[in-house]
């Protein structure tokens, strides 16, 4: 088995799957240095930068260098001029001499010839990992087991349950997670609040707890970090008991005004707002806002609409709320992930 100074692997990685990672690891085991070239076209819906980041995370070995380039030239394996145009893109991205090109594609020999390098075939029959990026794009949920942690985190459909105090958000979120066999992300703000109350000592009452404005961005950031971590090893659905967006409304509730820098990115996909009507208020030691529930419900509703977030209001008894929540999540999943088709290839 030959050893090479500089090897090359190139592909779209749209998105990356175990076959891609097997290709990279096989090449890395036979080279002093390996360049992984991520080639994305402008029509594709996963940004080039994301794919580069994913491949860098999965293949963090020091002798593996992941770079990216935009290649908007449709592939035609029969046209020398098209080959020349592609090679100009590849050479601009990888100007160093290449000793070996590792591929699982039929164009491997020609690619190697044009680089003046050996062409090494790696499982072109796809016997070791019978999966393709096309299959993943068509149905990510069915192929979820093949996706690496950063890809899962990016593709997971994130569902947020939020609402005013004592409106059944935690109960609904847990039931929804159980229904889908999904990861559940707890409300960090509640844990944070419990610690603040405990710090006041035995016998302290919730009315004695005071919040500073600067605490809310920290709560929001921690909530988002917990969510992102859970998405990495969860399934295609992630159920979150509140989110960073909701924290901005809680800032208004406790301090009476909006935090100027607490606007959260809409990285979640569906918000389920639990109505306060018909839900008895239960004081669990961390609540005192029964009279504020109508206001909070409306504020959540107004801000969800104003910011263009996709949301459903859940009303009635728990069984109805859960059924409506499941229907909303099923609708979300039924729409698919909406990957744009890559540029066509002529073989």
Automatic annotation (TrEMBL):
It holds the Pfam family AAA_28. Residues 158-321 form the NadR/Ttd14 AAA domain. One of its GO terms (molecular function) is nucleotidyltransferase activity. Signal peptide: none annotated. The keyword Transferase applies. InterPro entries: Cyt_trans-like, NAD_biosynth-regulator, NadR/Ttd14_AAA_dom, P-loop_NTPase, Rossmann-like_a/b/a_fold. It comes from the Bacteria. Keywords: Nucleotidyltransferase, Transferase. This is NadR type nicotinamide-nucleotide adenylyltransferase.
